[in-house]
């Protein structure tokens, strides 16, 4: 089953976002873990098979949106992305996952927290807001819809 996703990251320093980006982007992902510092070798091995982004949009020097098309198991990719974000001290990580219109949620991972921000088709969503849902549908859950979620649920 194919899933689409968008990942938002916010970091405190350029070095942190560059390190995180190195593991996400196809062109910079380490190919030989043995060439890395000891503390990063296991990360490189885990990140080896996660999905690559189809699009990368920098919102600022310290914030980025990565658009992915998950052909494999999105839970494995997300687990590694959360681990990478924590390793490189992300201030905020928000993940959007969508499978057609059966499953669609925005989940935030910050240090010490894993919280559902919004679930489009689920009554489990903490807040149901028809104006937000109209906006998400109108923008077809694209980057502008994602930005609306980020603004609405800081």
From TrEMBL:
Source organism, top-level taxon: Bacteria
Name of the protein in question: Uncharacterized protein
Organism: Pleionea mediterranea
């Amino acid at each position: 089953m194919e899933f689409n996703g968008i990942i938002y990251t916010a970091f405190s320093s350029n070095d942190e976002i560059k390190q995180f980006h190195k593991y996400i982007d196809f062109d910079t992902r380490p190919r030989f873990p043995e060439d890395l510092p000891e503390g990063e070798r296991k990360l490189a091995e885990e990140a080896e098979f996660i999905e690559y982004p189809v699009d990368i949009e920098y919102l600022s020097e310290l914030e980025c949106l990565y658009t992915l098309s998950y052909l494999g198991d999105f839970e494995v990719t997300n687990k590694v992305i959360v681990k990478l974000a924590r390793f490189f001290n992300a201030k905020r990580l928000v993940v959007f996952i969508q499978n057609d219109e059966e499953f669609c949620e925005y989940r935030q991972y910050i240090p010490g927290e894993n919280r559902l921000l919004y679930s489009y088709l689920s009554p489990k969503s903490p807040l149901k807001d028809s104006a937000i849902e109209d906006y998400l549908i109108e923008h077809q859950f694209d980057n502008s819809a994602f930005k609306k979620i980020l603004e609405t649920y800081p």
